[in-house]
Amino acid sequence: MPVQYAGIKKEHEAVRGRAGLFDVSHMGEILVEGPTALAAVDRLVTNDLSKLEAGRAMYTVCCNAEGGILDDLIVYRLGDERVLVVCNASNRDKIVAHFAKNLSLETTWNDVSDAWALLALQGPNAERIMKALGAPEAMLALPSFHVARANLAGVDLWMARTGYTGEDGFELFCASDDAVTLWRSTLEAGEPHELQPVGLGARDTLRLEARLLLYGNDISEQTHPFEAGLGWVVKLDAGEFIGRDALRAIKATGLTRKLVGFEMTGRGIARHGYPIVARGVVVGEVTSGSPGPTVGRNIGLGYVPLALAKIGATLSIEIRGKLVDAVVVSTPFYKRKR
Q1: Total structural domains in the chain?
Q2: Same domain for 68 and 135?
Q3: Alpha helices, DSSP H only, in 210-253?
Q4: Do the Cβ atoms of 22 and 122 come closer than 8 Å?
Q5: Which range of residues forms the domain containing residue 186?
Q6: Residue 116: is it exposed, middle or buried by C-beta count within 10 angstroms (0-12/13-18/19+)?
Q7: Is the pLDDT score of 338 beyond 80?
Q8: What are the residues whose beta carbons fall under 8 Å from the beta carbon of 74, sequence distance 6 or more?
Q9: Sequential DSSP letters for 311-335
Q10: Is the residue at 186 inside a domain?
């Protein structure tokens, strides 16, 4: 996927106001099958998959034994004995190896990343475009974090009400050989609804406004879920999983730092890696930062000591040797109207 087609700001605004189509086929997919498929995957993630019914999806993280985040994932239960795990492209080899090492022998699994394609249709007009593609009413009524089998434009696919933009929309999993047909058909169906193809640049600004974390920037093996604000996906009492003992100890000890959102009050754009300064001392670094086209402010994320993690705390961001004022704000920076 290119960084941009028609310009990052234009594509960002298209998704917020109308609709955008992303080719995110670079994502990794692992298909786990067998009577114990769900239980086997459950042991590798922090959330409680035992509650996941067929046709539903769940956001979670996968940790190492020390509680560090190996990746954040979405787990889709496609059937009673069929589970799809979607991981970040940069972590595909690591997660495949981790699953291969730790999945139970009663399950079969396959890395289907190269065989499957993934398109994401996001924005207020997504439902109208799906209808124009031939999606039945039952598919259009699919609730958030649900998944169902469908046929659109002659392409058999899995249709999920998920995304990475902060907008309503759908993610479409199909065979790689059908991706071009589905892409072109969706763009054609979306033309009356001002559908815009969108690249990686706007994908980043959209997810940042919605405070959706980026692996390798905001989370990594050097961070744990509690300090990243992902404690809600950690179910310590739901059963055994890799990293549970370490996370239990971390929670008992308490946090020393926290990932916060900030906006620039001075003139400047915070970028990944820029130092965060308080009272003349470097206290952290920016993990993500960019202009927020919808919110109209320059925004960012970064880890700071707990004492500085309160709304209204003042910070400075070092930008090319100069300190520029910033303030900690509540997140998400943007939340769509329901």
Answers
A1: 2
A2: yes
A3: 244-253
A4: yes
A5: 8-205
A6: buried
A7: no
A8: 57, 58, 59, 60, 85, 86, 162
A9: TT-EEEEEETTEEEEEEEE-S-S--
A10: yes
